[in-house]
Predict the structure.
Amino acid sequence: MSGQLALEGFESPAVIHNIFLALAPEGDAPDRLTALAERLRTERGLKGGIQDRERLHVSLHGIAEYSEVPSRLVPNVSAAVGGLSLPRFEVTFDRVVSFNSGRGNRVLVAQAQKAQPALEELHRTLADALRRHGVCRAVRSYFTPHVTLLYDGKVVPEQSIEPITWTVTEFVLFDSLQGTGRYERLAHWPLSA
């Protein structure tokens, strides 16, 4: 059967589009992050599903949540951040730790032990541009750069890992379609060489 009839009074829940700016791992980093998650899942007896490669990211700023993506969203975000001239830089993640996700689960993430000034500068510069243009729901000044590897009920104590480094060449506007497990890239902006 190709489809189902909707029961009167019962409608499918609407998809919420969570729009945010982020960095997507580049080069061999997605493979290395996935392999790390697989290894830790086996070693620690974790049951949670590993993040798909397409969903790996470092969140920078949440833009807003919508039931439908407004047609002016990408042009408005582009007006705010598209003209910025920012240099490429390297990021390194060299430890893993569990966070409380706030949803009754723990989230296992890769983080950096040391400050990453270029990444923090990108975060600040984007925040200033988003504020000036009134594009963002709430620009946060604090920033804990991390890449989510998987969700699980178990706590993984902080530990060092073989550093995973990549050169950041762009930042991306993502649409996380809540409840579907899908992320879509709406736009991206390159950093200067």
